[in-house]
Amino acid sequence: MIVPRESKGDLAWSVFVQVAEGGAPITALVPLTLIGNKIEFTLPPAEPYGGMHFTGTISSTEIRLNTPSGQVEVLRRGKSYWQ
Q1: List of residues 6+ apart from 9 with CB closer than 8 A
Q2: Per-residue pLDDT of the chain (83 residues; tens, 9 = 90+)
Q3: Residue 2 near residue 29, CB atoms below 8 Å
Q4: Cα–Cα distance between 1 and 4 in angstroms, integer?
Q5: Is 81 left (phi over 0), alpha (psi -120 to 50) or beta?
């Protein structure tokens, strides 16, 4: 889930990330870099999956997220589990 935040008086973005690979989910709220329709973020180093870097593209209907292992996840726009 992408959420707005304020950074030094300017609008910026954060991403709430949930990773669940058959076990209890891991969550993190991290800064998101958004340039045009390109996004990227890195999970905090002290967390499980720490330091994993994700890139992707965002459109009006979906996010195509490239995982560090080279997989592409397609996340359709809509309400999340948390909403």
Answers
A1: none
A2: 888 988 888 889 999 988 877 777 888 899 999 999 999 999 988 877 888 999 999 999 999 999 988 999 998 988 766 66
A3: no
A4: 10
A5: alpha
Tell me, yes or no, if the pTM score tops 0.85.
Answer: no
Domain regions of the chain by residue span: 2-76
Annotate the chain with three-state secondary structure: CEEEEEECCEEEEEEEEEECCCCCCEEEEEEEEEECCEEEEECCCCCCCCCCEEEEEECCCEEEEECCCCCEEEEECCCCCCC
